[in-house]
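Narrative of accomplishments. A recurring question from our advisory board has been how the design workflow behaves on a single, concrete structure rather than in aggregate. To address it, we present the structure tokens for one chain from the evaluation set, followed by the sequence designed for it. No filtering or post-editing was applied between the two.
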């Protein structure tokens, strides 16, 4: 009895986890620079825009916006990023975006249920690599809850 309940629960969670597939969003589609992403969070999609969407050889300054609904408060917010090229991990990067005593962004301290719409000026120095890259980005709060997760594909040649 207990065993069948457990397997049913497992089946349910597995089905749920596999059932959630957020759409792939194409952010940029210019000849030498393509950027797309999909949310890898089971509970929500995330919005991202980049302007202008031109060749990285020509442009190095961009305006980006990030939109997401908070499922948990973010007194603290922790960013974790992996840059992958094929099977190779080129870079792992961890950073605090919000700390209690060091709120680096206006959204730090926002509560569950609030919508974040943040304009983020980006400076991208020319990328020394060419090809297809996957970037895995995760945001965690002070209690280890996932705030957002995105799987980014970047093609640069
Ligand atoms: C970013 O936005 C600001 C304000 O709207 C604008 O003045 C600036 O030219 C934009 N930068 C780029 C690179 O488009
Ligand atoms: C997500 O990551 C997988 C590899 O882990 C990749 O095959 C897929 O294209 C990625 N999707 C997006 C939208 O970045």
């Amino acid at each position: 009895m207990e065993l069948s309940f457990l397997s049913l629960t497992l089946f349910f969670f597995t089905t749920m986890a596999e059932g959630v597939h957020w759409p792939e969003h194409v952010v940029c589609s210019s000849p030498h620079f393509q950027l797309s992403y999909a949310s890898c969070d089971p509970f929500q999609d995330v919005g991202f825009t980049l302007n202008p969407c031109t060749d990285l050889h020509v442009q190095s300054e961009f305006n980006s916006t990030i939109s997401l609904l908070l499922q948990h408060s973010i007194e603290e917010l922790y960013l974790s990023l992996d840059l992958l090229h094929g099977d190779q991990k080129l870079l792992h990067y961890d950073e605090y975006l919000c700390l209690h005593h060091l709120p680096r962004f206006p959204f730090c301290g926002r509560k569950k249920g609030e919508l974040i719409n943040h304009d983020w000026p980006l400076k991208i120095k020319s990328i020394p690599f060419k090809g297809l890259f996957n970037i895995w980005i995760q945001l965690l709060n002070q209690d280890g809850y996932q705030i957002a997760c995105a799987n980014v594909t970047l093609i640069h040649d």
